[in-house]
Amino acid sequence: MFRSLQERPKFKGKTVVLVDVSGSMAGKVSGKSDISRLDAAAGVAIVVRELCDDAHVFIFSTQVRQVPARRGFALRDAIGWAAGGTHLGAAVKAMNGYGYDRLLVFTDEQSMDPVGAPVGKQAYMINVAANRNGVGYGKWNHIDGWSEAVIDYIQYAEAEGLE
Question: Which pTM was predicted?
């Protein structure tokens, strides 16, 4: 995996990856899947981390915590397991205070608190679930899906100025 990502274009600037580890992320991505929402989110976060010049990975449920700098499956292990409530709004507020050029949130878009607007240059709310309604609208670039094609889309959109 690392070798295959070496030649891909890198995200410039400070990228914050925010992964939802709340209890609802233990659910499956769809009724016909064996993959949990958290596994989908962690898998794409692993790839994103490799494609960033300056990556910072955080997890959240009822609290926000920075994940130690890890790569590959070690990053998946550091992300941990799904448990607790979902304070997505508080997590976004904490990241707005942390500062970033780009914020990527991997979530099922359930939240116990209101989700405010992002303050960085680019912000993506990436829904890894098949929920009908989400919370990441307004100034968010809202994406439904969780394959590596999400990364291709973001890189293309930023290169072309399509946000």
Answer: 0.93
